[in-house]
Amino acid sequence: MLMNFADRELDMARCHVMGILNVTPDSFSDGGRFNSLDAALLRAGKIVAQGAAFIDVGGESTRPGADPVSVQEELDRVCPVVEAIARELDVVISVDSSTPEVFRETARLGAGLLNDVRALQRDGAVAAALETGLPVCLMHMQGQPEDMQVQPSYQSVLREVSGFLMDRVRVAEQAGIPSDRILLDPGFGFGKTLAHNLKLLAAMERLQVLGYPLLVGLSRKSMLGHITGREVSERLPASLAAATISALKGASVIRVHDVSETVDAVKVVSAMEEAGQ
Ligand code: PT1
Fold this sequence. Notes:
Blueprint: E1 2-5, E2 8-11, E3 16-22, H1 37-49, E4 54-58, H2 71-88, E5 92-96, H3 100-109, E6 113-116, H4 125-132, E7 136-139, H5 157-175, E8 182-185, H6 194-202, H7 204-208, E9 215-217, H8 222-228, H9 236-248, E10 253-256, H10 259-275
Parallel strand pairs: 3-4, 3-10, 4-5, 5-6, 6-7, 7-8, 9-10
Antiparallel strand pairs: 1-2
């Protein structure tokens, strides 16, 4: 179950932590403090020191209600940070983008994973991803970030999410992206009510059976606010519970803001699983 991320091999049978590095002016939980290159690198260094295997660099906010950003703006935000991290740190650089030009340029600069919340649906995205030779994470979203939380609706959220993901896998594989370069993500909070998110969380092992490693992001999301009544800054305990559940249900990558705390939680699950084998 080894996967190759730009010459770094990771065992996807294990659970890894991905630290979030937003390089947007409106980042939802770091107040957009990390926009200069030095500040971003400092934060990246902490993420790595705290035990993250991946850093997810994102120049476009995709949280509910966010506006799209131009290709040039996205390139200008993301590329210098990817280049600096590749030069300075030992970590897999994930690029949170749906933009073919960003795939090409960041792959050249040392990125190791294309994390596409639009599952390669933008024009030219499949071809660009194929060209890079990098693994891709295909995520489910209903609607677009601008309107996805207006009125999410499903007959069966599990069937529709897994059906969509398998359609996107088919498109990717038909274009020539090999199956050992694909991860899947149910897209918690992307066009889903609390009930939809909870169904997906409860049924995560049924996405596992599709045969591709799972990446999940629940950190500080509003579903945890709805459950606990807590503001975004007070959602660490709920985020750790969500990460622990995900690790127990077999997720390979957990995308989080709070790296050191999540690494500890995942270590407990891994230690238990190794003892029980
Ligand atoms: C995710 C994810 C992501 N989430 C992947 N990439 C975000 N692969 C960005 C809320 O409800 O889950 N998987 N990239 C952030 N998106 C959101 C969505 C942030 C919803 C907050 C919410 O609060």
